[in-house]
Structure prediction request, 323 residues.
Amino acid sequence: MHGKSALITGITGQDGSYLAEWLLSRGYRVYGLVRRSSTENLERIEHLKEQINLISGDLLDQKSLIAAVETACPDEVYNLAAQSFVPVSWHQPVLTAELTALGVTRMLEAIRTVNDKIRFYQASSSEMFGRVQEVPQTEKTPFYPRSPYGVAKVYGHWITVNYRESYGMFACSGILFNHESPRRGLEFVTRKITNAVARIKLGLQDRLVLGNLEARRDWGYAGDYVKGMWLMLQQETPGDYILATGETHTVREFVKIAFEHVDLDYEKYVVIDPRLFRPAEVDLLLGDPSKARAGLGWQPEVSFEQLVKMMVDADLARWGKKV
Ligand code: NAP
Ligand code: GDD
Prediction:
């Protein structure tokens, strides 16, 4: 029997790199869509380069997506590519919609054109809950997005559901709460904090400028979450699932634990800049992962404290090598 094959869009991102590792460990042939860039951007998958196949393409370009699906002949497509940074979505709302919303339709159309039996995973987001309508949030909680990014993700979610219902496609929407790792982009708050803590500890930086410290997020570890994505596509019937830890913490708590881990007092280093506050904030996210636990047998393994410390340690090691 041939092993399965999968195509990942967004393979150069945080989740794409962990998902590629997970699928390779399950014996998959892994294909990744990468967009053209004048400088190579493969840092997160450098260690996998010999084991994966990269295909040039862009979520903005329909023809390239059809060609990618034809080349990979995948059993499963994981659509992780997006403009994923919330603040940029206010500055580039049209691009965000093109990529994060319409990009999903383009990928679904590519699958429908080549082979509508291919299973499809859409990377939906807890950002869709925005101004939350209930606590905790479940798969049935109504959406109330608070950013152009969140609005685009709501479109991506519903078009996935619609293609499942309209064409009988095996299409799943994973509603994932924030998940982090040492591979998280430096602009997201967790990595911005752990990177700064490491640099401050090593004497390379003397302050950390942040925005709203009171926002609450349900933070988990990305390595745990990609397994949930895969599990969704291994079920008998397609469905939508929340992946979350069921715990919520403030940005302030994250900061405090990160500084304490290197024996520093955050109050001496953190400076608040009101320009980093968002035009509309998501104040509280708390997910209820019961459906994934019962239906997929999924549960997160890394705790909040372990996650913070893992990220600080990784940044210390990275900067420690350089000084
Ligand atoms: P990420 O690190 O920002 O990665 C985004 C990926 O999308 C990168 O590989 C990027 O490629 C690719 N991409 C951007 N524009 C593209 C285009 N025009 N064509 C093809 N690829 C393009 O994001 P992540 O944290 O791994 O998240 C993965 C997905 O899950 C995203 O859709 C995100 O919105 C969603 N999500 C994330 C979280 C979270 O907490 N991490 C939670 C819920 C949902 P380049 O390297 O070329 O930029
Ligand atoms: N980025 C950032 N930078 N956020 C800050 C800062 C700062 O300096 N200071 C405070 N925050 C607060 C933000 O206001 C927000 O409430 C919280 O920290 C988390 O911000 P991010 O880490 O940028 O993540 P996000 O929650 O907006 O979005 C992430 O999670 C979504 C899932 O809920 C992204 O990964 C999205 O792609 C994902 O869909």
Q: What stands out?
A: Residues 9-10, 12-16, 33, 35, 41, 58-60, 80-82, 84, 99, 123, 125, 176, 178-179, 185 surround NAP (ligand 1) (CB under 6 Å). Residues 93-114 form the longest helix (22 residues). The first strand starts at residue 5 and ends at 9. The CA atoms of residues 85 and 188 lie 8 Å apart.
